[in-house]
Amino acid sequence: MTRIIVITSGKGGVGKTTITANLGIALAKMGNQVALVDADFELRNLDLLLGLEKRIIYTLFDVLAGECRLEQALVKDKRQPGLALLPAAKKRTKELVTPEQIKPLLNDLAQKYEYILIDSPAGIDAGFQTAIASATEALVIATPEISSVRDANRVITLLQAQKIKPIQLIVNRVRPGMVRDLNMMSPEDVQELLGVSLIGSICEDERVIVSTNHGQPLVLGKNKSPAAIAIDKIAQNLGGKKNNKSLDFDLSNDRILNKDSTIDPTTEFISLYPYF
Ligand SMILES: Nc1ncnc2c1ncn2[C@@H]1O[C@H](COP(=O)(O)OP(=O)(O)O)[C@@H](O)[C@H]1O
Ligand SMILES: [Mg+2]
Question: What is the domain count for the chain?
């Protein structure tokens, strides 16, 4: 059965679009048929991050308006067989798509694709409700900051109310050196606060920004950066393959959080944030 996974967070700028694009490619590299749906109709950045913006002819809005067939709107990624993008409108729009409109469209997509990843907008209003409407599971993205964790907590409550299950956590932009110095929550701290399972964590990695600016997705590069390795692992974990979920990559410009480290920041952080 097709897995329809919404990538969401509450807070903006935490890496939803980056993760949707790269996770989609990583899953397709593993031989899966993957459709990426840009449900962030206002910001619509997914096409840019994938470097597919020039190839868009029709969009999700054209499909809904009956101006083209779903198949015509899908942009197939020539670099990565098995990957297709269903783009949002060509121009930024505040136009709303309702859950009732998106559901049949995603049902059609599910006939052909094994994974559907939905990039959701920030916030928890109508756009969020549409993005989660057809989801069978969710990946919640949080950064190790208390505001992001709070927003993620809110979103998890809403996802649970919709009976979306499983809900798994990705902690992004982790800086191991700061974690070790007890200046940043560890992925495990965040997980403990949110009470959902941690599928993986991604470190702060400047190559994410470089790849975004070039429209050249991180996980397609030859020399894998730490973030690309982490996303590949998350794809494997999502597919059921067991992998180490901790931060275990080497960072030349940062200190490594060693799994065998004697420092256990978890207790410290929980006591720092007793009000959460
Ligand atoms: N692991 C990371 N390391 C460094 N920069 C990152 C990382 N993840 C995301 N970013 C940057 O953060 C910004 C917001 O990411 P984006 O995916 O657009 O977030 P969202 O979709 O949640 O708003 C972008 O500039 C992106 O390049
Ligand atoms: Mg985004």
Answer: 1
The residue range of the domain holding 93 is 3-275
Please check whether residue 215 is in contact with residue 50, taking contact to mean a CB–CB distance below 8 angstroms.
Answer: yes
234, containing H or E segment:
helix 226-238
Q: Which atom of ligand 1 is nearest to the CA of 202?
A: 1
> pLDDT higher for 238 or 260?
238
Summarised one tens digit per residue, pLDDT across range 107-138 is 999 999 999 999 999 999 999 999 999 999 99
Query: Residue for token digits 């903006």?
Result: 12
What's the chain's Rg over C-alpha atoms?
A: 18
Rounded-to-integer distance, Cα 123 and Cα 227, Å: 25
Mutational test site, ligand 1, from 8, 18, 139, max ligand atoms within 8 Å of CB: 18
The reported pTM is 0.89
Of ligand 1's listed atoms, the one at least distance from the Cα of 172 is: 1
